[in-house]
Design goal:
binds pyruvic acid; globular; alpha/beta; 3-stranded antiparallel beta sheet; about 375 residues; 6-stranded parallel beta sheet; disordered N terminus; about 40% helix; binds 1,4-dihydronicotinamide adenine dinucleotide
Amino acid sequence: MLYKVKSPPTTRLQKIQKSAVETHRSANQHAKECFNSLTGPRRVGPVPGFFKPIQNAAPSSSTSRNTKISVVGAGNVGMAIAQTILTQDLVDELALVDAKPDKLRGEMLDLQHAAAFLPRTKILASVDYSATVGSDLCIVTAGARQIAGESRLNLLQRNVALFRDIIPPLVKYSPDCILMIVSNPVDVLTYVAWKLSGLPPNRVVGSGTNLDSSRFRFLIADHLDVNAQEVQACIIGEHGDSSVALWSSISVGGVPILSFLEKQQIAYEKETLEKIHKAVVDSAYEVISLKGYTSWAIGYSAANLARSILRDQRKIHPVSVLAKGLYGIQGGDDVFLSLPAVLGRAGVLGVTDVHLTDEEARRLRESARTISEVQSQLGI
Ligand SMILES: NC(=O)C1=CN([C@@H]2O[C@H](COP(=O)(O)OP(=O)(O)OC[C@H]3O[C@@H](n4cnc5c(N)ncnc54)[C@H](O)[C@@H]3O)[C@@H](O)[C@H]2O)C=CC1
Ligand SMILES: CC(=O)C(=O)O
């Protein structure tokens, strides 16, 4: 016997909703028709005659060309990065790529509708990588994210498979780009992206512990009740559980903090320092357990890196770079992890040589070993 699912009777509210949707559709259609009658079908470039050039104008002498960023992955992280880039007036063109066409178009339109409040930026979106052509910087955020309690390293196999589809077309359309990886586990995926891209190592960088260092600076600043921008403090190594806090080089407004405490004979327990570092490591887990994902801080972190690169700022950021042979990391290991790197228009210009205590150096080598072990199972 078959049971038929009866359609419920149409209520008055549903009728009103249906007619509202139809009215909205026809209003959109009407607006499009009016626009087309004024300007012709959708076109690229200005409508001829809309403004008249002034008499005897010399051709533009500007030699600068448009700058372009592409963001792959229009999820929580990709969109937080995109909107931070737009508000900070970093580029002339922003291209978004995702595998979900409707979500992608929705995100593009939503950002385009803010045009009246933002610096002028052309925003494009497509599931096709040709939209990314000629990018100066490609930021990859696509992929699986952690669920509450899950480690970043757990995401590896799923995201490596996606990277095989993402990295080759990105580099095909933008062979001169700097590639910035954000998807997790960011250090291993930066290595994977480097291998799949064939780019020189200075042009492949992971967002790494730039975010962890901001969390660290926030916690110290909060403790001392000062501005976090006055706190020079760095976390290096894995963006994850084996990261290393460089306590020995922290300064606040130029004052080295550990020697200040010692001079003032203020006792501090090693355990207190460990607790602060643990709070940094636990930060992402806490936010994910509360809201399901992290987005705003990584949005600002990635835009901060994008500015240093595209504006050739030569600022020093803890980011994931090829660490082979640096800080005592074994020459045989092509491992990417965060070290203090100078970033500019050519990507990673160099790595600074910060003094590490024996304990910090040992922890960094351990962090490298953790990443290297995971990497060795990849067969890339
Ligand atoms: N490095 C860092 O500091 C941080 C990294 N992350 C990582 O960023 C990644 C993204 O996180 P969310 O944005 O929260 O995830 P999400 O699930 O909101 O977005 C992921 C997006 O990737 C897209 N996608 C999947 N496969 C694709 C493909 N083959 N091509 C193009 N797009 C594809 C999905 O359609 C989705 O829109 C995760 O791996 C997460 O762990 C998140 C926060 C901080
Ligand atoms: C998810 C992640 O990697 C973070 O927020 O640190």
